[in-house]
Description:
CATH class of the largest domain: Mainly Beta
Helix content: under 10%
CATH architecture of the largest domain: Sandwich
Structural class: mainly beta
Distance between the termini: 29 Å
Strand content: over 45%
CATH topology of the largest domain: Jelly Rolls
Amino acid sequence: xxxxxxxxxxxxxxxxxGQGVAQAAEIDEVSGTGNGVADLGTIRKPVIVDxxxxxxxxxxxxxxxxxxxxxxxxxxxxxxxxxxxFAEKHSSPLIGAKITAPDQxxxxxxxxxxxxxIRSGKTPIVVKLSKQTKRDTIRKFVYRGSGDVVVFPxxxxxxxxxxxxxxxxxxxxxxxxxxxxxxxxxxxxxxxKLKK
Length: 196
Protein backbone atom coordinates (compact mmCIF):
# COMPACT_ATOMS: atom_id res chain seq x y z
CA UNK A 1 0.00 0.00 0.00
CA UNK A 2 1.38 3.40 -0.91
CA UNK A 3 2.16 6.06 1.64
CA UNK A 4 -0.77 8.08 2.96
CA UNK A 5 -0.12 11.45 4.52
CA UNK A 6 -2.24 12.77 7.34
CA UNK A 7 -1.68 16.36 8.32
CA UNK A 8 -2.22 16.40 12.03
CA UNK A 9 -1.59 20.01 13.07
CA UNK A 10 -5.23 20.42 13.92
CA UNK A 11 -7.00 17.28 12.89
CA UNK A 12 -10.53 18.01 11.85
CA UNK A 13 -12.94 15.69 10.19
CA UNK A 14 -15.51 15.61 7.45
CA UNK A 15 -17.49 13.27 5.41
CA UNK A 16 -17.65 13.52 1.64
CA UNK A 17 -20.01 12.10 -0.88
CA GLY A 18 -19.49 11.34 -4.53
CA GLN A 19 -21.29 12.54 -7.61
CA GLY A 20 -23.11 15.49 -6.13
CA VAL A 21 -24.18 16.45 -2.66
CA ALA A 22 -25.64 14.24 0.05
CA GLN A 23 -27.14 15.38 3.30
CA ALA A 24 -26.03 13.81 6.57
CA ALA A 25 -27.81 16.00 9.12
CA GLU A 26 -30.01 13.12 10.24
CA ILE A 27 -27.81 10.19 9.30
CA ASP A 28 -24.48 8.95 10.58
CA GLU A 29 -23.20 7.37 7.36
CA VAL A 30 -22.57 8.73 3.90
CA SER A 31 -21.30 6.86 0.84
CA GLY A 32 -20.60 7.62 -2.77
CA THR A 33 -18.44 6.99 -5.79
CA GLY A 34 -15.68 9.25 -7.06
CA ASN A 35 -15.44 12.98 -6.44
CA GLY A 36 -18.00 15.01 -4.50
CA VAL A 37 -19.02 16.95 -1.42
CA ALA A 38 -20.97 15.68 1.57
CA ASP A 39 -23.41 17.84 3.53
CA LEU A 40 -22.90 16.86 7.17
CA GLY A 41 -25.40 19.23 8.71
CA THR A 42 -23.70 21.14 11.53
CA ILE A 43 -21.11 19.46 13.74
CA ARG A 44 -19.98 21.54 16.71
CA LYS A 45 -18.26 18.87 18.82
CA PRO A 46 -15.31 16.50 18.47
CA VAL A 47 -16.15 13.31 16.56
CA ILE A 48 -14.61 10.22 15.03
CA VAL A 49 -15.04 9.57 11.33
CA ASP A 50 -14.69 6.01 10.09
CA UNK A 51 -13.69 5.76 6.43
CA UNK A 52 -13.35 3.15 3.71
CA UNK A 53 -12.04 3.90 0.22
CA UNK A 54 -11.79 1.16 -2.44
CA UNK A 55 -10.24 1.15 -5.88
CA UNK A 56 -6.73 2.28 -6.71
CA UNK A 57 -5.56 5.81 -7.24
CA UNK A 58 -5.10 9.25 -5.68
CA UNK A 59 -7.23 10.14 -2.68
CA UNK A 60 -7.80 13.54 -1.05
CA UNK A 61 -10.23 14.37 1.76
CA UNK A 62 -10.65 17.91 3.16
CA UNK A 63 -13.11 19.39 5.68
CA UNK A 64 -15.65 22.08 4.79
CA UNK A 65 -16.47 24.69 7.47
CA UNK A 66 -19.48 27.00 7.83
CA UNK A 67 -17.45 30.19 7.41
CA UNK A 68 -15.69 28.97 4.27
CA UNK A 69 -12.25 28.96 5.92
CA UNK A 70 -9.34 27.30 4.15
CA UNK A 71 -8.68 23.93 5.68
CA UNK A 72 -5.88 21.43 6.07
CA UNK A 73 -6.44 18.16 4.22
CA UNK A 74 -7.24 15.20 6.43
CA UNK A 75 -6.02 12.54 4.03
CA UNK A 76 -3.78 12.82 0.99
CA UNK A 77 -2.52 9.57 -0.44
CA UNK A 78 -3.58 6.47 -2.31
CA UNK A 79 -6.67 4.25 -2.15
CA UNK A 80 -7.49 1.60 -1.04
CA UNK A 81 -7.47 2.51 2.66
CA UNK A 82 -9.75 2.24 5.67
CA UNK A 83 -9.71 3.30 9.32
CA UNK A 84 -10.86 6.20 11.47
CA UNK A 85 -9.86 9.83 12.06
CA PHE A 86 -10.36 12.35 14.85
CA ALA A 87 -12.18 15.61 14.08
CA GLU A 88 -11.53 18.23 16.72
CA LYS A 89 -14.06 20.92 17.61
CA HIS A 90 -13.32 24.04 15.58
CA SER A 91 -14.24 27.72 15.91
CA SER A 92 -16.47 27.33 12.85
CA PRO A 93 -18.86 24.35 12.64
CA LEU A 94 -17.91 21.47 10.38
CA ILE A 95 -20.62 21.23 7.73
CA GLY A 96 -19.18 18.90 5.13
CA ALA A 97 -16.20 17.42 3.38
CA LYS A 98 -14.79 17.56 -0.11
CA ILE A 99 -13.47 14.29 -1.49
CA THR A 100 -11.46 13.23 -4.52
CA ALA A 101 -11.44 9.44 -4.88
CA PRO A 102 -11.03 6.86 -7.65
CA ASP A 103 -13.95 4.63 -6.70
CA GLN A 104 -16.49 3.86 -3.98
CA UNK A 105 -16.15 5.14 -0.42
CA UNK A 106 -18.08 5.23 2.84
CA UNK A 107 -17.79 7.55 5.84
CA UNK A 108 -19.51 7.28 9.20
CA UNK A 109 -19.56 9.92 11.95
CA UNK A 110 -19.76 8.84 15.58
CA UNK A 111 -19.11 10.39 19.00
CA UNK A 112 -15.58 10.31 20.36
CA UNK A 113 -16.87 8.41 23.39
CA UNK A 114 -17.50 5.43 21.09
CA UNK A 115 -13.75 4.86 20.54
CA UNK A 116 -12.79 1.23 21.23
CA UNK A 117 -10.48 0.19 24.09
CA ILE A 118 -7.86 -1.73 22.11
CA ARG A 119 -4.06 -1.87 22.25
CA SER A 120 -3.14 -3.15 18.79
CA GLY A 121 -4.26 -2.96 15.19
CA LYS A 122 -3.26 -2.62 11.54
CA THR A 123 -5.17 0.46 10.36
CA PRO A 124 -5.57 4.12 11.40
CA ILE A 125 -7.84 4.40 14.45
CA VAL A 126 -8.85 6.47 17.47
CA VAL A 127 -8.66 4.41 20.69
CA LYS A 128 -9.84 4.98 24.25
CA LEU A 129 -7.57 4.40 27.22
CA SER A 130 -8.97 2.29 30.06
CA LYS A 131 -8.54 5.32 32.37
CA GLN A 132 -7.86 9.00 31.83
CA THR A 133 -4.23 9.78 32.74
CA LYS A 134 -3.89 11.62 36.08
CA ARG A 135 -0.27 12.60 35.39
CA ASP A 136 2.24 12.30 32.57
CA THR A 137 2.24 8.60 31.71
CA ILE A 138 4.80 6.54 29.79
CA ARG A 139 3.66 3.94 27.24
CA LYS A 140 5.62 1.97 24.66
CA PHE A 141 4.53 2.30 21.03
CA VAL A 142 5.64 -0.19 18.37
CA TYR A 143 4.92 0.05 14.62
CA ARG A 144 6.09 -2.37 11.93
CA GLY A 145 5.73 -0.94 8.45
CA SER A 146 7.18 1.35 5.84
CA GLY A 147 4.59 4.13 5.81
CA ASP A 148 4.03 7.28 7.82
CA VAL A 149 2.99 6.94 11.45
CA VAL A 150 1.53 9.76 13.53
CA VAL A 151 0.31 9.33 17.12
CA PHE A 152 -1.19 12.09 19.26
CA PRO A 153 -3.07 12.28 22.58
CA UNK A 154 -6.64 13.56 22.92
CA UNK A 155 -8.13 14.86 26.19
CA UNK A 156 -11.45 13.71 27.67
CA UNK A 157 -12.92 16.99 26.34
CA UNK A 158 -11.76 16.18 22.81
CA UNK A 159 -8.76 18.50 22.50
CA UNK A 160 -5.74 17.12 20.64
CA UNK A 161 -2.17 17.42 21.85
CA UNK A 162 1.12 17.57 20.03
CA UNK A 163 2.19 14.38 18.22
CA UNK A 164 4.20 11.97 20.38
CA UNK A 165 5.21 10.01 17.25
CA UNK A 166 5.65 11.58 13.81
CA UNK A 167 7.89 9.52 11.54
CA UNK A 168 8.09 6.93 8.76
CA UNK A 169 9.01 3.28 8.88
CA UNK A 170 9.47 1.03 11.89
CA UNK A 171 9.01 2.70 15.29
CA UNK A 172 9.78 1.34 18.75
CA UNK A 173 9.83 4.04 21.39
CA UNK A 174 8.56 5.18 24.75
CA UNK A 175 5.96 7.93 24.47
CA UNK A 176 4.75 10.35 27.13
CA UNK A 177 1.00 10.90 27.30
CA UNK A 178 0.21 14.16 29.10
CA UNK A 179 -2.07 14.42 32.13
CA UNK A 180 -5.74 14.33 31.07
CA UNK A 181 -5.28 12.02 28.04
CA UNK A 182 -8.36 9.84 27.48
CA UNK A 183 -8.02 8.95 23.77
CA UNK A 184 -5.19 8.43 21.29
CA UNK A 185 -5.25 8.93 17.53
CA UNK A 186 -3.01 6.45 15.73
CA UNK A 187 -2.36 6.95 12.02
CA UNK A 188 -0.52 3.83 10.87
CA UNK A 189 -1.06 1.39 8.02
CA UNK A 190 0.58 -1.77 9.29
CA UNK A 191 0.83 -3.62 12.60
CA UNK A 192 1.05 -1.38 15.67
CA LYS A 193 0.91 -1.97 19.44
CA LEU A 194 0.50 0.26 22.48
CA LYS A 195 1.99 -1.26 25.64
CA LYS A 196 2.10 -0.20 29.30
